[in-house]
Each structure stands twice: as structure tokens, then as C-alpha cells.
Amino acid sequence: MCGIVGLHLRDPGLWPQLGTLLAGMLSEVADRGPDSAGIAIYGDSTLTPPDTVTLSLLPSGNPTALADLGTVTVLGPTTLLSSSGSADAVAAAVEAALPGTTVIGMGAQLAVLKGTGHPDTLAAQFDLPRFGGWQGLAHTRMATESAVTAAHAHPFSVGDGLCLVHNGSFANHATIRRELIAGGARFDTDNDSEVAARFVAACLADGDDLDKALRRVCERFDGFFTLLVSTPTEFAVVRDAIACKPALIAETAAWVAMASEYRALATLPGIENALVFEPAPEEVYTWSR
Asked: pTM of the full predicted structure?
């Protein structure tokens, strides 16, 4: 079933409230996926210090082994490592220090937090309400395609600053996975949603903009899906041709939000004056900073 929420803040006056607002939205869809959850935060300087690249990690051992590589912050099951090196160089150093560690996100302004358990419990472990920023998304998972682990939780962040969350399932993900592997892609899980994330990343690497990449998802993927995709500058929503997976968008001058259910939007300031609508099938909706 799964639940998706996302918030793109246009009003800088709301940036300090991002974590609080996102925690409230996440709680309202927690019963759609009580086995695990994940959160992406863009623009909180305590999570992603200026002039550094931050890797979000699921460490394979004691994260203190990473202390020589940069600043280590442990938040529940997730460890953040901020360093002045390049993302690829830091990732290679992490693999050398703690082989088997999974990189679940990277970027100058992105932190990804994931774990198993009830979403409200995880939000408390992460201390989500204390974080600010201009954009965030979250996902509650009810597993249907693969194991319940932190690595299998959404969002899938497989490129610099790119995140994808998904409600639904893909019928032809194995075929597309094989094509991506043949093109050099590496996978961390057998989750069908990771295939979509790596497909979008490959499209962007080929020169597509986000709108075109998501249109290509509609062309190539069979199944039922609502996707929320974000980068440091964009926030986008797309649904499949049947649009059987629930989704609502709300928009005001101060923010744009997306959620699987209206009750998650009802917690937002100014919702009474928002334009609220259901996204049309196979239409890509994008907003930019």
C-alpha cells in the first residue's frame, strides 16, 4: 500500500519548520506502511554542513571507524558522514573502512534517513522536528516486492541529490534492471523501486531533464505507480496511465505539497486557501526553486 508525503517550501520563513511539518505529514500516513520508513531533507546545515559533501550510510559495523574520514553523525539506524572530499572518493574510503556499508544518499545539501519500524518511532529516533530546510519527502512502506530492511526502505537516492519514493509495483522491473546492469549500473537491493530510481538517474546522466526522464518512465515501465521525485532544485510527481494509486497535490504561494491522503495535507498552514487537486494520469508535474 505505502504512503508518500512531500513538501517544497517557497517561503523561506517556513524553512525552520520543515522537519516539524514533515513529521506531522508522515504521521498521518503511517498506517499505510508500518514496517519501515525513510526521509529526505534538503537544506539543513546541521545535517549537511556548508562546503562539504554528505553521505548517508547504513554502516556494516561501528560507525566510529569512519571518524578519520570526516564528521560522523549517528541518527538512529542511519549514519551521516560529511567530508570535504569528492563524493566518489569519500564513498571509496567508506568501503575501505567498513566494507559492505550501503550508501543511501549523497549530496552537498541532501540527507537521507532510513530504518525499519513504525514511522512515528523512526521520526522520533531521527529527531525529525528539529531539522529545517527548503524541501523534504518521506515514505512509509508496506513491503510487497522484497525484504523489510532499512536498505529496502524508500527513498532511493542513487545520484547526486536525487531521491525517489514510490507507491505501487512494477511488472517489468527485472527486464529494465538487466538493461541497466548491462549499461554499468550497480544495485544495492532487489527492490523494484530502486530500478525506477536508477532508470531516472540514467536518463538524467544522458542529458534528459527531470520532466523528460519521468515521461520515459511512463513509456518504459508497466505497472501501477505514483512517484514523487526530488533534486536539490526540483520537486516532481507522476502517475501511471490508470492512476489507481492515490495522490493529491496542494499548492499555495508559500508551499507545494504532495501526499497519498488528504489528512496529511490538512496539517499544513494555510491549507484552507490551497489549490488541491488530483494529478492526472501520465502527466508530469514539476516545481523548481
From this structure: 0.95
Count of H-run helices and E-run strands, the chain: 7, 16
Contact predicate 76/126, CB 8 Å: yes
Whether residue 222 contacts residue 199, with contact meaning beta carbons closer than 8 Å, is answered with no
User: Residues with catalytic annotation?
Assistant: 2
| CA dist., res. 260 & res. 229, Å (int) | 14
The region of weakest confidence among 115-129, 138-152, 155-169, 221-235 is 138-152
Radius of gyration, CA atoms only, the chain = 17
Q: Which amino acid is at 253?
A: A
Q: How far apart are CA 230 and CA 221, in angstroms?
A: 19
Neighbour tally for 250: CB within 10 Å: 22
Q: How far apart are CA 66 and CA 103, in angstroms?
A: 13
Which sign, positive or negative, has the C-alpha torsion 260, 112, 162, 267?
positive
